[in-house]
Amino acid sequence: MNTAFLGLGAIGRPMAARVAAAGHSLTVWNRTAARAAEFAKEAGARHANTPADAVRDADVVVTCFSTSPDVYSILDGPDGLLAGVKRGAVVVDCTSGDPSTSKRIAARLAEKGADYIDAPVSGGTSGAEKGTLTVMVGGDEAALNRARPVIEAFGQKIVLCGGIGAGDTVKAVNQAFLAIHLLSAAEGLATLAKEGVDPAKALEVINASSGRSNSSMNLIPERVLTRAFPRTFKLSLLEKDIGIAASMARENRVPAPVTQVAADIFRVARREFGEEVDHVEIVKLIEQWAGVQIQ
Ligand code: NDP
């Protein structure tokens, strides 16, 4: 298949590498052109200078930017995606986006005879490298099926969740779980550390008990107890995700005080720690508040 991949960030890059390795003909574009040039050389892909040029021959276009407004921002103008996209192409937006902007992007693409599915992913950069991502899709089943051979290059579990925006909604709620689990695990382990209990011992128990989560089973043992804190998924992006979940709850008049408080704490952390820190570094905020290190 002729494919284009736009957005070679921390997760986009290994996903694009899987698409190239699966044998699809691939053209890439990235806002910071040097990243795309380097990737193209390594992966044997073509490097385009504009979104329009990148998507001109593509049957399937994958986008993976920080936010949905970032995707919307590259649609218009002579160099924009809409100027190049083929009638009958499918745009697979793997951005963890917001459903209302996704619907607006889909409407703009429909004017050009192209389909849009929102297709956020989970499984992290290591899942992208291994091609084991979970892909949650919103949109038309026929469009998903046309894009499926490309999505299968990086996705293992592909679930059609509903109409356009449904993938975004599931992703936002999943991310709210992640943010809340991380915060609650950090608060609990900080308390245990102050009580003089070894966090590793406490996790041995909790991870065999009903309080366990991906945070307690994987993130905290691998990244906090070791003090490694690798930077794979920005805290600023998780703040964006839980913000989407909190606004969806408000729009639907669902009382969601836990989600809202977690969103506010992530906003404070983003302001305090900046744009580059990893999401797991939220634990450091709790450690600062508690005056203790979890290790
Ligand atoms: P990064 O910050 O590493 O990369 C962001 C990408 O978006 C870069 O290619 C960047 O270009 C591009 N970009 C940002 N703003 C614009 C814009 N206005 N116009 C054009 N391009 C833009 O993020 P990730 O790769 O980590 O995340 C991408 C998406 O995937 C996010 O929605 C995130 O929430 C989601 N995600 C990330 C995971 C992870 O483990 N990292 C896991 C699951 C989902 P440039 O290089 O020029 O900055």
Q: Can you offer a commentary on this structure?
A:
With 295 residues, the protein is α/β, with parallel strands linked by helices. It has 14 helices and nine strands. The strands form two sheets. Strands 3-2-1-4-5-6 form a six-stranded parallel sheet, with helices on both faces. It has a three-stranded mixed sheet with strand order 7-8-9. Helix 1 runs parallel beside helix 7. The radius of gyration is 20 Å and the shape is elongated. The protein starts with a strand and ends in a 5-residue tail after the last helix. The structure holds NADPH dihydro-nicotinamide-adenine-dinucleotide phosphate (NDP). NADPH dihydro-nicotinamide-adenine-dinucleotide phosphate (NDP) binds next to helix 4, strand 7 and helix 7.
Supply the helix-strand structural class: alpha/beta
Q: Report, as a whole number of angstroms, the end-to-end distance.
A: 49 Å
Shape: elongated
Please work out how many helical segments DSSP would assign.
Answer: 14
Main sheet attributes: strand count, strand direction, barrel closure: 6 strands, parallel
Oligomer: single chain
User: Which stretches are low in confidence, meaning pLDDT under 50 for 5 or more residues running?
Assistant: none
* Strand segment tally: 9
SSE topology string: EHEHEHEHHEHEEHEHEHHHHHH
Strand order of the largest sheet: 3-2-1-4-5-6
Q: What would the average pLDDT be, to the nearest integer?
A: 98
Computed CA radius of gyration, to the nearest angstrom: 20 Å
Percent strand equals 5-15%
* Share of helical residues: 40-55%
Q: Are any ligands bound, and if so which?
A: NADPH dihydro-nicotinamide-adenine-dinucleotide phosphate
